[in-house]
Amino acid sequence: MSFLQAAPVLSNQYLDDRVLRSYLRRVLPRTMLGAIEPDLTDLGEYAANAWALARTRERSEPKLTQWDVWGERVDRIELTPAWLAAQPLAARHGLIAAGHEATHGTHARVHQFALVYLFHCASEFYTCPLAMTDGAATALKASGNQRLIDRALPHFLSRDPEQFWICGQWMTENAGGSDVAPTETVAHEENGRWRLYGRKWFTSAINAQAALALARPAGAPAGSDALALFYLEPRKPDGRWRNITIDRLKDKLGTRELPTAEIHLDGAPAELVGEPKFGVRQIAPMLNITRTWNAVGALATMRRCIALVRDFGNRRIVFGKPLAEQALFQDTLAGMQAEYEAAFHLVFFVTELLGRVQCGQADESQQSLLRLLTPLAKLWTGKLAVAIASETCECIGGVGYLEDSGIPQLLRDAQVWPIWEGASNVQALDFQRALRSAGGLQSLLSAQRTILSQVQASELEPCARAVRMAATAIAEWLQKASAGERHRMEAGGRELAFGLARTFALALLARHAEWALRAENDPRPGAAARRFAEHRLLRLKPDGLRDATMLASDSY
Ligand code: MFK
Predict the structure, then answer these.
(1) DSSP 355-372
(2) What is the mean pLDDT of the chain?
(3) Whose Cα sits closest to atom 5 in ligand 1?
(4) Pocket mutation for ligand 1, best pick of 292, 419, 425, 433 (most atoms within 8 Å of C-beta)
(5) Which of 118, 173, 190, 464 has the fewest CB atoms within 10 Å, measured from its CB?
(6) Computed over its alpha carbons, how large is the radius of gyration of the chain?
């Protein structure tokens, strides 16, 4: 045989992750990092092995059996081997608990999301129910409903696999995903107990032991304010469903290992989380947590793609030398790396803020900053993960287009990041909602200035200049757009959000680069920052909805 292509190989995904390790050395106390590193190293090893293992075995998907052989409706779901392994692993590594325990104080969320970032690609999207469970724990804490807190949190936050539960989030119905106002599920109070009747169209991780669901109390008016938030335990201790039937599992483009179901509720018993209205407000803390998980998962996808492309570049010989030594390949990879490094610092900065806010150690402006940056991080990283996964297929070439290389799955899975938990436009609009409630951009711009003031090195000056110029352009655009009609702000919403996310990320990356240069004599983050500064930060349209004319009619 004359020629064989070598498959990309992954080594320990923690030990091999320069970006994560450098960041953790900057932000965590040395003793804390020493204490958590064995765990991070274990998960890094698990992730590398899971990639190798997945290449050697048939892919499996969850299977729904609706009827047993005797004619009884059972709706039994068989999970994939990786899902069965994930449940005890998630509990033991404290993938939810670590974010809520007091041990590491305000650093709890950085610790947790470092674990999540390492675990995600090996988890076959078990991180989806973990995200929802974390979100549910946060929403229940915020609700102050002590009975439900006592009932559910010991399970959601448990490190004991026997006690650990996951939780679903049942919002989406046939009539509405982005807009929940048309929700048709009705809650009736029967003999002092609430029961839900209706149809939920996308319920991720239907195997969860608990769920939070939106429903309209019977007789309540139309609209989203009248929806209430309910807590359910969908199955009895013996595994039978409580007045719920599973109509089918969804046939999805990606995330195929995740059992996403269409279900009917026919009197499923439920408990009110708060007052019998304003359920959207009550579930909002959950949305903000799952959006953070979404950003971390998207980041993990980017990191996985780049790790594979880097390794492949060293193995693949073309035109007489490894791809890694070819200028255009190097340039392509450098572009991907710069985008990923900037995104990394934005996402982990959000986790830092979240840790401070939940410990009550954030002032008002940091709370506003978290509210503003969460949709921005979700929106930008979702889109970026798809672009990087697509580039990865291309870098690996023909084999990167073949299913059993594992690369197409990365692309199909990545496509969920911009859709889940509110598509990009929902995030752009949520950012504008946050702008209104947080009193404008002030907290963001002032944090950006403070971060930038820590960037002193002359080699980082182009980065600082790019941030200042972008900030001025954004402020000018905002002044014009907000003085005009609302549709202008809305039509420019996506580009505004992308521009702000990218600009803030550059400031954060430059600050990290400054530290890396001074503390560790490491020029690589600085190179990434300069490269990212050369990419386009803004694409703001000068004139809002000018393109509406183009869409006026499609007929001749
Ligand atoms: C690693 C894996 C990670 C991810 C896994 C997740 C898997 C889960 C799969 C799914 O379930 S995907 C489906 C998720 N669905 C969504 O994300 C819904 C998308 N739509 C929205 O987010 C809409 O913006 C929304 C439904 C919230 C609009 O609802 P409304 O009622 O029309 O909005 P309104 O009236 O502006 O807000 C109602 C209240 O909620 C307001 O509070 P007040 O009443 O006190 O004024 C808002 O401020 C508040 N609110 C809304 N969004 C908020 C928020 N508060 C804080 N943060 C937010 N993000």
Answers:
(1) HHHHTT---HHHHHHHHH
(2) 95
(3) 128
(4) 433
(5) 190
(6) 24
